[in-house]
Amino acid sequence: MKTIYFDNNATTKMAEEVLEQMKPLFCELYGNPSSMHTFGGQIGIRIRQAREQVASLLGCEPSEIIFTSGGTESDNAAIKGALAAQPHRRKIITTRVEHPAVLTVCRELESHGYAVVELGVDKYGRLDLAELEEQIDDDTALVTIMYANNETGVMFPIDKITELTADRGVVFHTDGVQVVGKIPLNLARSNIDLLSLSGHKLHGPKGVGVLYVRKGTRMSPFIVGGHQEAGRRAGTENVPSIVGLGKACELAAGNIKQENDKVKYLRDKLEKAILEKCPDSMLNGDKENRLPNTANISFEYIEGEAILLMLDKYGICASSGSACTSGSLEPSHVLRAMGVPFTAAHGSIRFSLSRYNTEEEVDYTIEKMPPIVNHLRELSPFVAK
Ligand code: PLP
Question: Is 324 labeled as catalytic in the residue annotation?
Answer without folding.
Answer: yes
